[in-house]
Write a structure and sequence with these properties.
Layout lengths: L7 H27 L9 H21 L6 H19 L12 H20 L6 H18 L27 H19 L5 H5 L5 H6 L1 H23 L2
Length: 238
């Protein structure tokens, strides 16, 4: 989003989603690096919340596309950063590869929307969210109930896996692309100022500043968490 058009309510929501994602990853790191019990991050509450705040993050990324003049450029940069993360996370010293995580999804979605937005915008506005929701549900059902075996291993970005597939973070194109598209639909109403005025004048401390630096924080938070946890382990000999 351009600075002159920033809306604190959007940045605050993105900041909140990012904080919750960082907390979730911190709990995962405690399990993987410190032997903490699995239930601290894998339990009925967090299993649901994980998809809620991740979905919010993806939705807001789609919404913010309406504020950008170069979604193609933003998408290419985001996807390139994601591929660097794939390479680094696959190194033997780390050996916890992220093969198609949230940044891969967002980069792909931005590029996809930049190239096809005229087709999506041609759908009547009242019909579009119904179509997107139905496509979200249908694509989630499709990838969950169909199998490709090991014949087409390159389909994992779309949601189909194979025996032995592993990734530390996974947000496949189906169904998450359609959550992104729902965000682009909502973004039209935001940019046209059709929401209550309170939405545009809302302010709060800290969270908007976090939301405005979401990409930088997302890229750096895991190395910082890893470093902090390893330092604590060395100091206290855990």
């Amino acid at each position: 989003m351009e600075r002159k058009k920033r809306i604190d309510a959007i940045d605050a929501a993105r900041g909140l989603a990012l904080v919750l994602m960082v907390i979730h990853h911190f709990l995962i790191d405690l399990v993987n690096l410190c032997g903490a019990p699995m239930w601290i991050f894998s339990n009925p509450v967090f299993d649901v919340l994980h998809y809620i705040f991740a979905g919010l993050f993806i939705f807001l990324a789609g919404l913010c596309c309406r504020f950008s003049h170069s979604n193609l450029r933003r998408g290419v940069i985001c996807f390139a950063i994601a591929m660097v993360i794939t390479v680094v996370s696959s190194l033997p010293i780390i050996n916890d590869p992220i093969r198609f995580g949230v940044l891969h999804l967002l980069g792909f979605s931005m590029i996809f929307f930049a190239l096809t937005h005229r087709a999506w915008d041609a759908i009547p506005r009242k019909v579009a969210p119904v179509i997107y929701v139905l496509m979200t549900v249908a694509s989630a059902y499709l990838v969950a109930h169909t199998s490709i075996g090991n014949a087409a291993r390159w389909l994992f970005p779309f949601g189909w896996t194979y025996k032995g597939f592993y990734t530390a973070d996974w947000f496949p194109i189906f169904p998450w692309l359609f959550v992104f598209l729902i965000g682009t639909w909502a973004g039209l109403y935001v940019t046209e100022r059709k929401l209550p005025e309170r939405f545009y004048t809302f302010t709060c401390p800290v969270l908007p500043q976090i939301g405005r630096r979401s990409l930088l924080i997302y890229v750096l938070h895991q190395p910082i968490l890893y470093g902090a946890i390893y330092a604590v382990k060395l100091i206290f000999k855990i």
